Structure formats: structure tokens, C-alpha cells
Amino acid sequence: MRGKTIGIRAGLALLAVLFTASGCASGARTDAMAVAVSPDTVIGNASKLRGAVRVDRVSGGAETNPLWHPNVSTDNFRAALGESLTRNGMTSSGQGSYLLNAELVSLDRPLAAFDTTVTAKVHYTVVATGSQAIKLDETIETPYTVKFSETVYGPERFRLANEGAMHDNIEAILKRMITAAQPGGPF
């Protein structure tokens, strides 16, 4: 009987540790989602995007419940988009020639996983400010995996996977905008 009591106590202690550990989820960080200048995102001074883009409507994010999986808040997503545009020389100081709208459609993720893959699905539109003509209308899906060996702490793996998927998604729309702004493109 004594062995059974010790086993039950050990099981309850393990559950308490797991419950406490799972209660420490934190949301995706803006700086980890923002895209730095790279050879793929650098634009020239003559680019139609240089100082011409303003983030307009952003939606679809959700606040993180510390007792559940980390999320990406709308405010942090908006800030990461804005920071990415600024770092890459696209931010307009005024009204701008183009408005970037983004809707976080989904963050597909497992309920639990050792190697954690999150896929971010975001619908973007780029609209010409004066005419309201849609210059770009794209839905981009980007998966990102964080391996168990990178961090054994589950909520951190989910947060890192969220951040990586969103970073890659923002980078993909920047590249798509740069391509669309080339001569002969829709911009």
C-alpha cells in the first residue's frame, strides 16, 4: 500500500510540474517576427516601394492565454510588419502610395509535439492609396519547425515556431512586393 501511495504522490507531483510549466506560455515577440535587410529584400533608391508603403488594416491575431499555446497578437503582428517595412526602406513618412493590409487567417499547429511545426497563413492586399486599385492580393502559407533538441520546454518551442512562421511569412510578402514593383509588374 505504501508503494502505491508514493506512486500516486509522484504522479500528482508530475502533474503539478506539468501544469505549472504549461502555464508559462508567452506571445510571439515583435523583434523575432520582423525581417532585417537581406540581399533578397534590399530595394534600390529608384524602387516604387522606397518610402511608399504604410501598414493599414491588420487583423486575425489573438492574445496569448498563459495557460494555453502562445499566439500572435494583432498588435505585435502590426508592429512586426511596420518594423520590417522600416528596416527595408519601404515605410512611408506620410500617407504613402500603397497601403498594406494583412489578415492572419490561421496558425496551424499541433496540440502537442516534440518537433513543433507551425504554419502561418496570412492574406495580404496592397492597395494604391489614391485609386484604391488592388495591386497585390496574395495568401501566403509558411511552415516553420523548432526541434525538441533546440528547446525541451514545450511552450517555448511553440512560441519560437510561431515567431519563425510569421517571420518567414512577412519576408515572403516583402519579396513578393519587391518582385511586383519591378518594371512590367502590377505596381
Notes on the protein architecture:
- It contains 4 helices and 4 strands, in the order ααβαβββα.
- It is α+β, with helices and mostly antiparallel strands and 187 residues long.
- Strands 1-2-3-4 form a 4-stranded mixed sheet.
- Helix 3 crosses helix 4.
Distance between the termini: 77 Å
Q: What is the typical, i.e. mean, pLDDT? A: 86
Number of helices: 4
Low-pLDDT stretches:
11-22
From N to C, what is the helix and strand string? HHEHEEEH
Query: How many distinct beta strands?
Result: 4
Largest sheet: 4 strands, mixed
Shape: elongated
| Strand neighbour order, sheet with most strands | 1-2-3-4
Helical percentage: 25-40%
Radius of gyration: 21 Å
Beta-strand residue fraction:
15-25%
**Category from helices, strands and their pairing:** alpha+beta
Write the layout of secondary structure elements.
Blueprint: H1 2-22, H2 30-33, E1 53-59, H3 74-87, E2 98-108, E3 116-128, E4 134-146, H4 154-180
Parallel strand pairs: 1-2
Antiparallel strand pairs: 2-3, 3-4
Helix pairs in contact: 3-4
Summarize the structure.
The protein has about 190 residues and is of the alpha+beta class. About 35% of the residues lie in helices and about 25% in strands.
Identify the notable features of this structure and list them briefly.
elongated, 4-stranded mixed beta sheet, alpha+beta, 4 helices, 187 residues
